[in-house]
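# nightly structure sweep
# worker-07 picked up a monomer target from the shared queue
# config: single-sequence mode, recycle default, output format = structure tokens
# input follows
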Amino acid sequence: MREKSKMETIVYNAKGQEKGKMELPAFFNTEVSDVLLHEITTAYLNNQRSGTHKTKTRGEVSFSGAKPWKQKGTGNARAGQKNSPLWRKGGVIFGPEPRDYYTKLSKQKKKLSLSMAFSAQLQNGNVMVVDSVKVSEVKTKKVAELVKNLKVEGKKVVFAVNNDADFKLAARNVENVVVENVKNINAYQVLWADKLVITPEAIEILKERQA
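# output follows
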């Protein structure tokens, strides 16, 4: 997919006031492919699965191997063992077995899908650039005040920032707020957000990462 021309966006301060404008890197204006984003999202969710589901076959359930009753003369249907899948607490036919759901993705797809994810969120008006999210104190109320000032609403507000341990710790108990290190963020996490807050510093890091 080709990248289109660059664009500008408003930069806000911590009080939610317009501070100025900045030019966004070209990857923010990448042509979006729903097919690729669906593939990336599915792969990410698959890779979160533990794959430890398991049922017991008739050879694994704890039952005696003795025949329940004699073959003929009782009036009952023929039965060989109590571990039969037809019996209560018997084994399971073709039940799930442990498996690895890992889906491998190429570096090119990961890189391109991340550009598409940011572009899609920007087109939908879900990206907000804030000059800084530094907190004076490592307190939950500081992050809550920031969220209130920025007027970012949604069940999932993601702050994509550079490695900021204090901010991440302060935001830990703020409802609906998630802090992600922009160096590790992936396309699924970007698309998952109802609102995405990012700093100019984080954008520069992304620019180098997506170059």
